[in-house]
Amino acid sequence: MDWRSLPSLATLRAFEAAARHQNLSGAARELNVTHAAISQHVRRLEEELGEALLTRQGRGMALTDAGRLLAETLSTGFATIQDGVDQVRQRGLDRAVQISVTPAFASHWLMPRIGAFWAEFPEVKININPSMELIDLRRDGVDLAVRYGDGNWPGLEAELLTDGEFVVVAHPDLVQGRQVGKLSDLVDLPWVMETHMMERRRIVEKEGIDLSEVALTTMQTSGLVMSAVTAGLGVSVQPKSLVEAQIAAGNVVSLHRFTQCELGYYIVTRPGGLTENAEIFRKWLRRKGAEVAN
After folding, report:
1. How distant, in Å, are the alpha carbons of 93, 227, 274 from that of 98?
2. Of 129, 195, 209, 218, which one has the fewest beta carbons inside 10 Å?
3. What is the SS3 string spanning the chain?
């Protein structure tokens, strides 16, 4: 299609509305422009096509033969465009919302709560994709991601979901009721941490423990680390939001708490609006995050 040979969309829209209303004032109200703007667009279209399209008839307008032909064609064309847009929008509403989360967040934070979402919004379909891999939200078709960090991901919008409060946890049998005033009180115990979570290593060292001087075992996932902790194999530092349920159940005990305000789990989205269902899920996440904070 050679778009250069076509009149501007603005002039075509103005004429189609004027032809449908049979007057310029009705077209102006529909398109939220002035009467003069509609008149100017129609006059410009007539000049470009070399044909009269509308003639005055009393207080209204009447279509010429050329105007009637063009109006019918435009009406059909705009209706086809509207139908296509509506179908794409409905496709967006009907498809499952694609959610990318880290495995640790999925296991310890999201899954214990997701039943409440399904009960409240049974019509909203979601696909939860746990992965530690870097993703491109647009390329990979992801509507919303939850990632751990400082919220600085260039080109993306990030909203803090859980704060940067951390808890040092261990099995009760490992610590046997010892009193912990500072992290250095735990230097003699074995430690377990995730291999890729270097942020937590810096946090621990900032709190007073040199991890090069303790018995440290690294594991690939948070699930493995927490399995080791609940088996009494070591001490670990974890985001409070991920271990609060295990603490409440008595599977582990909290030995020390501290805050790193710049770190936390963030809701990450592309710039621009979400689909209706993705926005429903984001608002639900915000609500649950606020409940945890309180």
Report:
1. 12, 28, 11
2. 195
3. CCHHHCCCHHHHHHHHHHHHHCCHHHHHHHHCCCHHHHHHHHHHHHHHHCCCCEEEECCEEEECHHHHHHHHHHHHHHHHHHHHHHHHHHHHHHCCEEEEECHHHHHHHHHHHHHHHHHHCCCCCEEEEECCCCCCCCCCCCCEEEEEECCCCCCCEEEEEECCEEEEEECHHHHCCCCCCCHHHHCCCCEEEECCCHHHHHHHHHCCCCHHHCCEEEECCHHHHHHHHHCCCCEEEEEHHHHHHHHHHCCCEEEEEEECCCCEEEEEECCCCCCHHHHHHHHHHHHHHHHHHC
Q: What are phi and psi of 240, to 5 degrees?
A: -55, -40
Q: Which among 86, 104, 102 has a CA at the least distance from the CA of 94?
A: 86
Q: How far is CA 123 from CA 112, 120, 126, 279, in A?
A: 20, 9, 10, 14
Pairing of strands 97-101, 144-149: parallel
Q: Over the chain, what is the mean pLDDT?
A: 86
- Structural contact between residues 48 and 31, judged by C-beta atoms closer than 8 angstroms: no
With vertex at residue 119, the alpha carbon angle to CA 117 and CA 120, rounded to the nearest 5 degrees, is: 65
Model pTM? Answer: 0.58
Strand partners, 165: 259
Of 163, 232, 246, 167, which Cα lies nearest the Cα of 200?
167
When pLDDT is cut at 50, 70 and 90, the band that residue 1 belongs to is low
pLDDT at 57: 82
